[in-house]
Amino acid sequence: MTKIYYLIKPLIPRIIQIILRRFFVKLKRKKYENVWPILEKSGIKPEGFPGWLDGKKFAFLVTHDVEMQRGHDKCLQLIQIERELGFKSSFNFVPERYIVSQKLRQEIQTNGFEVGVHGLNHDGKLFSSKEVFSARAKKINEYLNQWNAVGFRAPAMHHNLEWQQALDIKYDLSTFDTDPFEPQADGVGTIFPFWVGNNNKGFWELPYTLVQDFTLFILMKETTDIWEKKLDWIVDKGGMALLNVHPDYINFTSYRNGIEEFSIDLYIKFLKYIKKKYDSEYWNPLPKDLTEYLNIKFKKSISNSTH
Question: Each residue of 89-103: b (16+ CB within 10 Å) or e?
Answer without folding.
Answer: bbbbbbbebbebeee
